[in-house]
Design a protein that fits this description.
Elements: H1 3-13, E1 26-30, H2 35-50, E2 57-62, H3 65-71, E3 81-85, E4 100-103, H4 111-115, H5 117-138, E5 142-146, E6 160-161, H6 177-196, E7 200-205, E8 207-209, H7 221-230, E9 235-237, E10 244-249, H8 250-263, E11 269-272, E12 278-280, H9 281-291, E13 299-301, E14 318-319, H10 322-325, H11 335-348
Parallel strand pairs: 1-2, 1-4, 2-3, 4-5, 5-7, 6-14, 7-11, 8-10, 9-13
Antiparallel strand pairs: 10-12
Helix pairs in contact: 1-8, 2-8, 5-6, 7-9, 7-11
Length: about 350
């Protein structure tokens, strides 16, 4: 196992979460190949290594078996891991009992919004429908829906948004396919809860980063910066750098998501981010350079040829995580600490 991931899992497992709630349970995780969802799967599988009698089973729903084998390489032989190859656009048939469902299958990189909007839409709407129907038939104990800050649209006033601050989304803008479908997925969870009693919670992660991010294909800015650092290249910034984001290291985000899942209020949504790491893209670039002075990197500004799928000039939104913090969670890793761990994980290979 990658040394940084192993350290992260130790951190997560010692975070005070009530792991007994997962003992002898089966958890279906969709989008299990993804950055944050894979960490949740790793964490649950690691519980079985610590206690051979813990007996939590992870059903990892994926679409590409070979990619999944690489992602779960360390755990691939575990009797507690089952790879389930399935496209969420069709109904799900699983014979096993299922206690929990974690639904995170969805492209999140803006690169795909204009290029494959239907591929964005289907898992968030049709996929959510099939999973909620499965949840109903299995009489599950909990359903965690991974949403996004995209549901807030353009905030009406100010930079800080809470879980109740919704702004404008244009349904005829193709780039709204992600935000609109996440909104629909959230509403579907509420509808199935109202009519069929499905217990659900929603997490809306801010910008999460860490060892499992795809620095080659993810078009988002931090992935690009980390890719530059790993390759010893100058930091390339394709905007004026004024956009601001909150950046949360994956180990902190994993603890937050599991804390919400087990201790959050049914039927409610929780922002997951690091309020103390709310910085501009320009400042982030400076942090990347200063954190690795030995690499002698510089910040290069380039004009972006294709405006679609990148940072929006002047876009500023702090997704307040105060509600999640009331559950007893708080961020531990600064951007510098998380950045060092992430880069080191990629350099290890």
């Amino acid at each position: 196992m990658n040394n940084i991931i192993a350290k992260d899992l130790d951190f997560i497992l010692n975070s005070g979460i009530d792991w007994e709630k997962f003992r002898n349970k089966t958890v279906l995780i969709t989008g299990a190949y993804g950055m944050l969802l894979s960490y949740i799967a790793y964490t649950l599988l690691r519980l079985n290594e610590i206690d051979p009698k813990f007996n939590v089973t992870v059903i990892a729903l994926i679409r590409d078996k070979e990619k999944a084998k690489k992602r779960f390489g360390y755990f691939i032989e575990s009797k507690h891991l089952r790879l389930f190859i399935h496209d969420l656009s069709s109904p799900i048939k699983i014979d096993n009992d299922i206690d929990y469902i974690v639904h995170g299958a969805s492209y999140a990189s803006p690169h795909y919004f204009g290029a494959n909007p239907i591929g964005i839409l289907l898992p968030n709407v049709i996929g959510t429908y099939h999973l909620l129907e499965l949840a109903k038939s299995k009489e599950i104990e909990g359903f965690l829906f991974f949403s996004s800050g995209a549901v807030y649209g353009k905030p009406i006033a100010g930079e800080e948004v809470t879980e109740k601050d919704y702004g404008y989304l244009d349904p005829l803008d193709i780039m709204s396919c992600y935000g609109e479908s996440k909104r629909m997925g959230e509403n579907m969870c509420k509808c199935w809860s109202q009519q069929f009693g499905i217990p659900f919670k929603i997490v809306r992660p801010a910008h999460i980063y860490g060892p499992t991010m795809d620095i080659e294909k993810d078009s988002r800015v931090f992935a690009n910066f980390i890719n530059n650092i790993v390759k010893g290249q100058n930091i390339v910034m394709r905007s004026d750098g004024t956009a601001k984001r909150s950046f949360c290291y994956i180990a902190d985000a994993t603890v937050a998501c599991l804390k919400v899942f087990l201790d959050g209020v049914d039927g409610e949504a929780y922002n997951i981010g690091n309020d103390a790491a709310y910085v501009s893209i320009g400042k982030l670039a400076e942090i990347c350079v200063s954190t690795f002075p030995e690499k002698q990197l510089q910040i290069i500004t380039e004009k972006r040829e294709n405006a679609g799928g990148g940072e929006n000039k002047g876009d500023r939104m702090l997704m307040s995580s105060k509600k999640a913090e009331k559950l007893g969670w708080k961020c531990t890793f600064t951007i510098q600490e998380g950045l060092k761990r992430t880069v080191e994980s990629f350099l290890q290979g």
